[in-house]
Predict the 3D structure of the following.
Amino acid sequence: MDTHAALFEQGRQRLDALRQLPPRQQASLKDKMLEHGFTRREFMQWSAAVTALLALPLPFSSLVAEAAELADRVPLVWLHLAECTGCSESLTRADTPDLDTLIFDHISLEYHETLMAAAGWQAEENLEHALSEYHGNYLLAVEGAVPTANNGVFLTVGCKGKTGLELVKEAAAGAAAIIAVGTCSSFGGVQAAAPNPTGAKGVHDVIDRTVINLGGCPPSEKNIVGTLMYYVMFGRLPALDMFNRPKWAYGARVHDNCERRGHFDAGEFVEEFSDHNAKDGYCLYKVGCKGPYTYNNCPTERFNGHVSWPVLAGHGCIGCSEPNFWDDMADFEKPLGRQLLHGLDASADTVGAVIIGAAVIGIGAHAVASLFANSKED
Ligand code: SF4
Ligand code: SF4
């Protein structure tokens, strides 16, 4: 049996097993789609798009559709640690809720401090109940960094005053799989920027388990929902890169799929945001774009219903899905190559060769390491 046939069979068996479990939502996904005016055709188009996003062959779209319908069989516990809630907001506050948000709504969300109605002791009980009732079976999503200095006292949550550090360790112990949603929970994010007084760290730094890191500030809702769908469908982690990010989402450089790339190669650059080159859509490298150093699918998947993404809108990528981006990618409106090449790219006329050289230096370590990165699975 070839790899795809074996994977399809694995998905089939997983979904058959999930179908035997009782639904945890009162309304089926079909009813919810009807209520929100989505047609079956739109749902099948969504399934095909998620299949392509996950880099799976088109026949898998029937499994994706089934996985979405059965998403309420997989309990999800979502913790908020040191963060701004932007990752949840990016998923749930769309002007026009799309199928991604509807399917997230269909997942069996057992605990989510922003979305649940419960508060205080009742919220605390909900969490304790979810962790014991679904021990070994729930998917844990964590949003926000973990403050670790002084035993984690810089973040306490809930009426029992548990630290974020205690909570994440406790919740991770019984989780079937763990997803760090956003750069803060993946790598520490802005909380971990120098001098990092709270000792903020990514989740993988404080627990002894594989964590899927969905870098991004915030990560796209497609990468969140795609990861959830992959887990519902196969009951395991996807292939991960050297920073434990799913390869299907973070396998390509922003720079390599950017619509301004032709201008980069031709040495045509925006010199300042108000110039004619900016109006003509030239490359943003010289005004700070970090696309050459950043791995994410923003140019291909875009945001807001596939309408646009930061570079198309006119500002360079700031490298938000990379570890330590807050420190390593700053200044966000100056080229990184300037630092790497000790001022060699100061002349606009030398950018072609020099900037490409800078990009190679900057990405070399990652690219080489990616070649040797194993497909990690729990
Ligand atoms: S440097 Fe930025 S704007 Fe220029 S081609 Fe690369 S990603 Fe696009
Ligand atoms: S374009 Fe760059 S900064 Fe913007 S969301 Fe994508 S990875 Fe983050």
About this structure: Residues 340-378 have pLDDT under 50 and may be disordered. The longest helix spans residues 351-372. The domain at 254-372 is CATH 4.10.480.10 (Cytochrome-c3 Hydrogenase; Chain A, domain 2). The longest strand covers residues 175-181.
